[in-house]
């Protein structure tokens, strides 16, 4: 553990594919720069809808084999992003996809939505104390768009930030660690409105795109007024890696750059600049940050390099 890279980024997501859609360019960029990028995915995405007809048998109401299949898709996506540290919260299959809000799967034993938040957070505390990230990325309190697993990932992620920093909490899980900065995934309204305008123009040209209809701004998670966004990561150089990672999730996503569709077949823009709201930790001045690690003091970098506290 004493040879951890200086910069360490932890992302907490609900299902395989969320990381590539939301943060694929960011993850690829920091991995390429030598930062330690750790992904914790809370469920296997067992309740997802399957796009390719030849894989329809994996669905939960048929073979119920989508979870293990998506473990493989996620591994392929991580190869595309150059990320080597990806884990499932509590181990693969510990928590099951809860399905959309209001369905009976929400209350199924083992469903992530019905998990005890502190118990689930303890699994994440172990990862935080091992990897010692300066930065954590997750969703806003509504999970970006109200999916139970995304809301729960937010709760578990934020709870783990506090518990990991508390020396009195589960010392058996490692020495306490304070995360400097916490971000929520965001999309500025002006960017998404412009993106959909471009998409609708492209859809109007016959044969240009393999998709027929556009989604709506309200279908996109995490959209906020522009001033709420504190940070943007220019992932232009990692556009191909992000698209390839999204394609690796073939049961869930179809990509035709710079657009993609989910199982609802409604096209939306694929962004290679990714946006964030800083919710914990300080920021200098009023302009947008261009680096998630901006302003972090040398202290938390040096601490691990010198082995202090390990
Ligand atoms: Zn999801």
From TrEMBL:
Cofactor note text: Binds 1 zinc ion per subunit.
Binding site for Zn(2+): 15, 18, 150
Keyword line: Hydrolase, Metal-binding, Zinc
Reaction(s) the record says it catalyses: 1D-myo-inositol 2-acetamido-2-deoxy-alpha-D-glucopyranoside + H2O = 1D-myo-inositol 2-amino-2-deoxy-alpha-D-glucopyranoside + acetate
Source domain of life: Bacteria
Pfam family, one: PIG-L
Single Gene Ontology MF annotation: N-acetylglucosaminylinositol deacetylase activity
Enzyme Commission number: 3.5.1.103
UniProt cross-references to Gene3D superfamilies, sorted A to Z: LmbE-like
Enzyme class at the top of the EC tree: hydrolase
Cofactor list: Zn(2+)
Role: Catalyzes the deacetylation of 1D-myo-inositol 2-acetamido-2-deoxy-alpha-D-glucopyranoside (GlcNAc-Ins) in the mycothiol biosynthesis pathway.
Membership in a protein family: Belongs to the MshB deacetylase family.
Protein name, UniProt field: 1D-myo-inositol 2-acetamido-2-deoxy-alpha-D-glucopyranoside deacetylase
Gene that this sequence comes from: mshB
């Amino acid at each position: 553990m004493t040879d951890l890279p200086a910069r360490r980024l932890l992302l907490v997501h609900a299902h395989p594919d969320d990381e590539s859609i939301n943060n694929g360019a960011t993850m690829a960029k920091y991995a390429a720069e030598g930062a330690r990028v750790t992904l914790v995915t809370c469920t296997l995405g067992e309740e997802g809808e399957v796009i390719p007809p030849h894989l329809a048998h994996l669905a939960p109401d048929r073979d119920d084999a989508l979870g293990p299949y998506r473990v493989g898709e996620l591994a392929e996506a991580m190869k595309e992003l150059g990320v080597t540290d990806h884990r499932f919260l509590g181990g693969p299959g510990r928590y099951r996809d809860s399905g959309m809000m209001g369905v009976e799967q929400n209350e199924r034993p083992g469903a992530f939505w019905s998990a005890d938040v502190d118990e689930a957070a303890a699994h994440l505390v172990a990862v935080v104390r091992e990897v010692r990230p300066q930065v954590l990325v997750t969703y806003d309190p509504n999970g970006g768009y109200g999916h139970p697993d995304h809301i729960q990932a937010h709760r578990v992620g934020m709870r783990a930030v506090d518990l990991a920093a508390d020396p009195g909490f589960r010392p058996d899980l490692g020495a306490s660690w304070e995360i400097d900065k916490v971000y929520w995934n965001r999309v500025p309204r002006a960017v998404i409105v412009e993106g959909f305008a471009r998409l609708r123009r492209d859809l109007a040209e016959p044969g240009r795109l393999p998709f027929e209809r556009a989604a709506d701004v309200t279908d996109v998670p995490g959209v906020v007024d522009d001033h709420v966004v504190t940070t943007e990561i220019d992932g232009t150089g990692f556009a191909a890696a992000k698209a390839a990672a999204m394609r690796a999730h073939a049961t869930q996503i179809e990509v035709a750059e710079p657009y993609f569709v989910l199982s609802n077949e409604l096209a939306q823009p694929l962004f290679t600049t990714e946006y964030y709201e800083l919710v914990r930790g300080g920021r200098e001045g009023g302009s947008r940050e261009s680096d998630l690690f901006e302003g972090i003091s040398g202290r938390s970098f040096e601490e691990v390099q010198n082995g202090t506290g390990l």
